[in-house]
Amino acid sequence: MSTRKLNSAESGLDAFVVTDFDDAPMSCGIVRLAPKLLVDGATWLARSQTYQFASFERQVGGASAGINAPADARAEAIAAFIEAFTPDAGSVLLDAGKGLGAGEISALRAADPRPEAAIVRAVELRQAGIVAAAELALGGLDGRTVAIEGFDAAGLQLATALIGRGAHVVAISTATGSAFSAAGFDLGSLTDGFAAHRADLVNELGVDAKPGWAVFGVQADALFVGSKTGALDHNGAPHVKAGVIVPYAPMPVSAKALAMFARAGTVVLPDFIVTGGALAAWPAEGASAPGDLAAAAAELVTSALGEVLGAEQGPLLAGCARAESFLLTWRTELPFGRPIA
């Protein structure tokens, strides 16, 4: 794991790029922007990416970059980052993460060898894989009850897909709080409420809003988590009633919570497999691109997930071991530390 600082007194740039393997032929990950991002958090995001690529047999290392900038200096900071990073843009591929729009780093695309669909359809294909993973783990979505922690624009898209498959969204949480409905929320209410109120929609759904953490204790078949790394920790784990934890972002379940879930028999899916659908648009070397990318994303994820779903140690730890088996086909040793918060 190495960290390259991109600091400039002249431009005021305060940024960094983390790569998991110095000698990898290619590294890939995200770049985020916020007033203060920590390198430590970025290293674990890079590690999670490494395990994702290994899960789908790609000789690609994980990467994660951060731009530290206040809101009133974001444009200048982004421009300075692009200028400083461009020489590496062909070997370290970065997608826009939290705090950035895809168009704001489009200048980096000139050196990016990935097919266009792998970038412009990444969110759609990632979601297709997440929904397919939940469907496989639950044995179908029709009539199933689900809760979504960290409901935002992506959460609304996820809810739309789940409801379209016959699931009932019985709880959501936002930064404001959480809201429950035993019968399931109407998609129109979620859509209109989010458009008008964003995180405050939990106060506009005709039910009494509860604290955000209360979503962990809802009675549901599956709990979708991913608002941040370690969102579901040892404090929230004892309250969970859902039988399956479905991650929609990297490392939302802490190591302590994972141990508690193992004792309780709660299934925790491996985030680095579940969120890998976008790789369907970036075929392995020599493979042709599939025609139906959404279907290919679902198949890619469920094929890998199916190999670890019934493992005795649980699918998350089994997924780690599976990824490590591939890593040892092109690395002399494993990186230190598994991607678990």
Automatic annotation (TrEMBL):
<feature type="domain" description="Glutamate/phenylalanine/leucine/valine/L-tryptophan dehydrogenase C-terminal">
    <location>
        <begin position="134"/>
        <end position="280"/>
    </location>
</feature>
<dbReference type="InterPro" id="IPR006096">
    <property type="entry name" value="Glu/Leu/Phe/Val/Trp_DH_C"/>
</dbReference>
<dbReference type="GO" id="GO:0016491">
    <property type="term" value="F:oxidoreductase activity"/>
</dbReference>
<dbReference type="Pfam" id="PF00208">
    <property type="entry name" value="ELFV_dehydrog"/>
</dbReference>
<dbReference type="GO" id="GO:0006520">
    <property type="term" value="P:amino acid metabolic process"/>
</dbReference>
<dbReference type="InterPro" id="IPR036291">
    <property type="entry name" value="NAD(P)-bd_dom_sf"/>
</dbReference>
<protein>
    <submittedName>
        <fullName>Unannotated protein</fullName>
    </submittedName>
</protein>
